[in-house]
TrEMBL record:
The chain crosses the membrane at residues 12-33, 45-68, 80-99, 105-128, 140-165, 171-190, 220-246, 252-273, 285-303, 347-367, 373-392. Keywords: Membrane, Transmembrane, Transmembrane helix, Transport. It is found in: Membrane. It comes from the Bacteria. This is MFS transporter. SUPFAM superfamilies: MFS general substrate transporter. The keyword Transmembrane applies. PANTHER family: RIBOFLAVIN TRANSPORTER RIBJ. It is a multi-pass membrane protein. CDD domains: MFS_YcxA_like (cd17355).
Length: 394
């Protein structure tokens, strides 16, 4: 039975390779640093603020570099792009382990940031959208569910290595693991080039002016503002849920459990997103999810107790955050199709990725200015409510 060129663009085992690759990329290039902050600061004397600042700078670099990576994916295919990203990531982690001083530590995370732009979700979203077209939601859900386990799998592994070795040796081992696991997955299971289809030919003929027309349109810019602001609010509150709950009288152990349950809520939210009907307009989905985010944040901000009710609100907000991840992955294709998707989605995701990098710092900074985390949550809820008005124009 003949298969279409679009179907032949999906290498056998390609989705599995992407899932495993995302698991290790997120686990090693993202979640390793939060686990290692304390050993690094103890050994070097560098402040935790500077150490996490280097990591955040790398994420901002990945947001900017992601624009160029999107173009590479459109014109060169994913194999070399993601393989080079893996090798660059391994090199970045080696440089982290070798860094003799704080400036070189920043340089190491800048290198890792370039790698993240070619190894984390945005390029994987572009590949799955190219492979599956209108049927993309289910494979996107599968991949993000697997990727969502990265901290569950790799945080304990990183902690074990830090107990057994010093942090520098740990990063050498992590760099080796990234290269050994992801290099063959990306090189052997991703396309060297996109096979020509009618849509691919059209994408190659898509003039720069047409891409600019889309990316400079008021609808595109409004959608970026709505998405980036919602990411800022959701991440600032949920990532800092422990000090917020402690302020409400909940003990540390229960607050830490709430943080873990938020992760479980994200997984549930992604499953829900994959099974809801997608016949409605993308504007409606966006509006409903942003309203849901605002409602969850208002609940966290205003509910004084009891503890179980606050935790339930946090888990609900986590599930909205999970929905929002898939909303980001599908937003561009749902509105503008898949022609030149890598290029357009790279531009679309840049401010969202940058804001996501700043959110963990923005929450504590705003809380310190306002006096407590509760008021920070009120500000984030109000901000999300404000952009919900804009969402009707997205």
């Amino acid at each position: 039975m003949a298969t279409s060129p679009a179907a032949r663009n999906r290498p056998r085992g390609g989705l599995t390779a992407l899932c495993v690759g995302q698991l290790s990329s997120w686990g090693l290039l993202y979640y390793s640093l939060p686990v290692a902050v304390h050993p690094i600061t103890e050994d070097t004397g560098w402040s935790a603020t500077w150490v996490t600042g280097a990591f955040s700078l790398g994420l901002i670099i990945s947001a900017v570099a992601g624009i160029y990576v999107g173009r590479l994916l459109d014109h060169r295919g994913p194999r070399i792009t993601m393989t080079v990203g893996t090798l660059l990531g391994a090199a970045g982690l080696v440089l982290v382990g070798l860094a003799p001083n704080l400036p070189m530590f920043f340089v190491a995370w800048i290198v890792a940031g370039f790698a993240q732009s070619a190894a984390l979700y945005p390029p994987a979203f572009a590949i799955i959208t190219r492979w599956y077209g209108p049927a993309r939601v289910r494979p996107l859900t599968i991949m993000t569910l697997v990727g969502g386990l990265a901290s569950t799998v790799y945080a304990p592994i990183t902690a074990f290595l830090l107990d057994a070795f010093d942090w520098r040796t740990t990063y050498f081992i992590l760099a080796t693991a990234l290269a050994v696991i992801n290099t063959p997955l990306h090189y052997f299971f991703l396309n060297s080039r996109w096979e020509a289809t009618g849509e691919t030919h059209k994408a190659r003929r898509t003039p720069t002016t047409e891409i600019r027309t889309i990316t400079r349109s008021s609808r595109f810019i409004v959608l970026q503002i709505v998405m980036a602001t919602t990411v800022l609010a959701l991440f600032s509150v949920t990532i800092n849920i422990i000090p917020l709950l402690i302020e409400r009288g909940i003990d540390y152990r229960m607050a830490a459990l709430a943080l873990g349950l938020i992760g479980a809520g994200q997984v549930a939210g992604r499953v829900v997103f994959s099974v809801i009907p997608h016949g409605d307009s993308p504007k409606t989905r966006t509006y409903v999810i942003v309203i849901g985010a605002a409602a969850g944040l208002w609940a966290i901000a205003l509910i004084p107790g009891p503890g179980w009710l606050l935790i339930a609100a946090a888990v609900l907000t986590g599930s909205i955050r999970g929905c929002h991840t898939l909303l980001q992955a599908t937003a561009v294709a749902d509105r503008w199709g898949t022609n030149s998707f890598g290029t357009i989605n790279g531009i679309f995701m840049a401010p969202i990725t940058a804001v996501g990098a700043l959110a963990p710092v923005a929450g504590p900074l705003l809380a310190s200015q306002l006096g407590n985390y509760g008021l920070m949550a009120v500000c984030m809820a109000a901000l999300t409510s404000l952009v919900a008005v804009l969402a009707v124009k997205s």
